[in-house]
Amino acid sequence: MAQPIKVHLTPPGPNPWKVVLVLQELGVPYEYHSFPFAEVKNKPYTDINPNGRVPAIEDPNTGVKIWETGAIILYLIEQYDTDHKISFPDLTNRSLCNQFLFFQVSGQGPYFGQAGWFNVLHSEKLQSAMDRYNAEVQRILGVLEGLLSGKQWLVGDKMTYADLSFVTWNDRIDSLTMCAPDKKFVGFPGVQAWHERMTGRDAWKKCMEDRDRLMDEQGLQSNGMPKGVNSMEEYEALIKAHNEAEAAKKAGK
């Protein structure tokens, strides 16, 4: 039996749950190191990921420590999906899965993230920025709709890590673009059906139960900010105060 892989994460964001979802689908043991967002750019976490982003993993079975979700997912597939449960053995289909994974990490994730920033978190409402990134959300959904035409999955005849890599960000479209939950896939029925196939799975339900629990442990709202904090400015001030208190504590030792 493999030792559990340690997943370092702050629970609000979509990216860590891509990795957890893959682990859950593969049945690979894992454990959480869940910590506050205020600590993501501080030691000791930056000794693991100097970029100060989540997630990162540590695999005690191999000694590998790695960050960036695309790299983590490729590592997990190579190391732990030898039976090709959510991958393929042949070069063509493997390359197609990687193509879609890189489309997710370079296209969907960054553009959806910027939509969330300018629609929800940015202190100034910049209509041009909101319009640009909302349009990019629609464009990417359109690309996916075309790719899924006549198909259930992106590659071959089964769900793979290519499909799983998109689900966490797609699930947040309503909160990122401030639309009604039942309107986030309007005009993209193929994407909606594909998304629902994945979110109906036990692995997804387990991940979201864990996320809710970890969020509650940190006293966080659904938008990731602490309860009682109503704007990004308040949250940034809270983070600054936390970091100053930690620095003062270390200086006093």
Show the helix and strand layout.
Blueprint: E1 5-9, H1 15-26, E2 30-34, H2 45-48, E3 56-59, E4 64-67, H3 69-80, H4 91-121, H5 127-147, H6 161-170, H7 173-177, H8 189-199, H9 202-217, H10 232-251
Parallel strand pairs: 1-2
Antiparallel strand pairs: 1-3, 3-4
Helix pairs in contact: 1-3, 1-6, 1-9, 4-5, 4-6
Give a quick summary of the entry:
The protein has ten helices and four strands. It has 253 residues and is of the alpha+beta class.
General description of the model:
The chain folds into two domains: 5-83, Glutaredoxin (3-Layer(aba) Sandwich); 91-202, Glutathione S-transferase Yfyf (Class Pi), Chain A, domain 2. It is 56% helix and 7% strand. The protein has helices at 15-26, 45-48, 69-80, 91-121, 127-147, 161-170, 173-177, 189-199, 202-217, 232-251; strands at residues 5-9, 30-34, 56-59, 64-67. The chain has a four-stranded mixed β-sheet with strand order 2-1-3-4, with helices on one face. Strand 1, helix 1 and strand 2 (30-34) form a beta-alpha-beta unit. The longest helix is centred in the middle third of the chain and has 31 residues, at 91-121. The model has no long low-confidence stretch (mean pLDDT 93).
